[in-house]
User: Fold this.
Amino acid sequence: MPKRILQGTVTSDKNDQTITVLVERRFTHPVMKKTVRKTKKYRAHDAENQFKVGDSVRIVECAPISKTKRWTVLTAEAAAEA
Assistant:
C-alpha cells in the first residue's frame, strides 16, 4: 500500500528533531454544496533541524518514531513567487 504524502506549513520547530506541520484540505460539503476548509496538525521528524516556521514542506507517513510522531519530512517546497 502506498504511503500518503501531504503538503503543509511548518507552525512550530521548538522541539529537537520535530516540527509541527499544519495541513489544510478542501472539499465540497455534501449537503450545503459549499467548499469547506479543514486543517489538521501533524508532528513530523526533522533529523537535521533544518526547517523553520513558515516553510512549506511535504511529509510522508512512516513507522512510529515516538508517541505522537508518525510522519517524516520528505522535501521542502519552493515558495511560489508572485
